[in-house]
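COURSE: Structural Biology Practicum
ASSIGNMENT: Worksheet 4, Part C
STUDENT ID: 0417
INSTRUCTIONS: Below are two proteins. For each, the amino acid sequence is given first, followed by its C-alpha cell string. Answer the questions at the end about the second protein only.

PROTEIN I
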Amino acid sequence: MDGHCRLTALGDVLPSFVTENLKRGFSVFEKRMACFGADDAVLSGVETRTSAPLRIQREDTFCAVGQDLIYPCGEGAGYAGGITSAAVDGVRVALAIMRRFACQ
C-alpha cells in the first residue's frame, strides 16, 4: 500500500463474533461469485452505525475536494436522501473508481 491505508487483520479491530460471521458470509458468497475471495482481495471501509450532518464536497471525479484518493458517498457524505439513493450513490462512486483505475 502507498501509506493511505493500513492493512490489518480484522480480528485486531473487530470482535470475534463479527469476524466469524464475516468469514461464514464470505465463504457463502464465494460460492455464488467466483474470485470474490481471491488471495489478493482487500476488504476496506468497515461500516458503522454513526452519522454526522456534514457534507464533504466532491469534484466531478467523485473525489473529495483536495483529496485525490477519498471518495465520499452515501448519506453521510450528503449526496443521498435515504438507503436506496445512498446505494445508488455508492454505485456511481464505484463506477468512477473503476473508470479511474481500470487497466488500459
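PROTEIN II
(use this one for the questions)
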Amino acid sequence: MVGVQIFGVKNSQASRAAERFFKERRVPIQFVDLKQRSMAAGELKRFVERFGMAALLDAESKAYADEGLKYLKLSDAELLGRIEREPRLLRLPLVRSAKTLSVGHDEEAWKAMIGTVS
C-alpha cells in the first residue's frame, strides 16, 4: 500500500483530520510537523507549481492577518520566506502520495490517493 506524507502542525484541526482519515484506513503516514521542521524548498515548489501560491495561502487565518499580508504586495520568493518562518500561513494540511497532491481539508482528494471511492 502506498503511504502518504502529511505536512501540517499538530495543533491544526485540519492536520489532525487528515492524520485520522489515513489512520482509520490503515494507510502508512509520515507526518511532518512544520513547527519542528520546515518544508524542503523542492517539496514546497511542487505544491506551488501544481496549485499556485494564492491557493496555498490561508487568507482567512489569524497568521495571515498578523503578518499584514492583506495589505502587502510580496513576490513569491518573499512569501516563501514568510511561510518558512510561519507555516500557519498555509492552508493545512498539505498531503502528498507519490505524485498526487492536495491542499487543505480535501477528503475527495485523499480518497483518490488511496484508491477508494465512496
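ANSWER KEY EXCERPT:
Q1: The chain is about 40% helix and 15% strand.
Q2: Residues 63 and 88 are 6 Å apart (CA to CA).
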